[in-house]
Amino acid sequence: MLETYRGTVYPWHCDHMNHMNVMWYVGKFDEATWNLMSHLGMSAAFLREHHRGMAAIDQRISYQRELHAGDTVAIRTGVVDVTDKKIIFFHEMRNADTDTVSAVTLLTGIHLDTQTRKSCHLPKAAADKARELVVAYELPWTS
């Protein structure tokens, strides 16, 4: 799996129950997604230049362990499947100090033409690189 994010939980990420609020889990997963896309060759500059984009069409999250202010977070990413227009991938968020899984998300993203607003084929190089990241991983919803 590819490390796509590393950061810290700040006090303002925490809610009234004193743990990281769900909006910040999603935000950190989103940052990991854009790091994945850049790794695949679909950086923000590439997408703008070629009038392309990525759209999430499905997301599922399993919260496993709470994170608190001061915790260091690491996200690793793997790919489940790649088709002509779609990538199905997951992020595993861990407490970097204890190495325990805090959350896992499964996402389906489609490649799209931002001018026609229709799905289109992934760049071959990006699809090939994504296929190199396909790993066997037991997702929380399949056990």
Describe it for me?
The longest helix is centred in the N-terminal third of the chain and has 18 residues, at 22-39. The protein is an alpha+beta fold and 143 residues long. The chain is built from three helices and six strands. The model has no long low-confidence stretch (mean pLDDT 96). Strands 1, 2, 3, 4, 5 and 6 form a six-stranded antiparallel beta sheet that branches. The chain has helices spanning 22-39, 44-49, 124-131, and strands at 2-8, 52-63, 72-82, 86-95, 100-113, 118-119. It is globular. A hairpin with a 3-residue loop joins β3 and β4 (86-95).
List the helices and strands and how they pair.
Layout: E1 2-8, H1 22-39, H2 44-49, E2 52-63, E3 72-82, E4 86-95, E5 100-113, E6 118-119, H3 124-131
Using brief descriptors, characterize the structure shown.
single chain; 143 residues; alpha+beta; six-stranded antiparallel beta sheet; 3 helices; 6 strands; 22% helix; globular
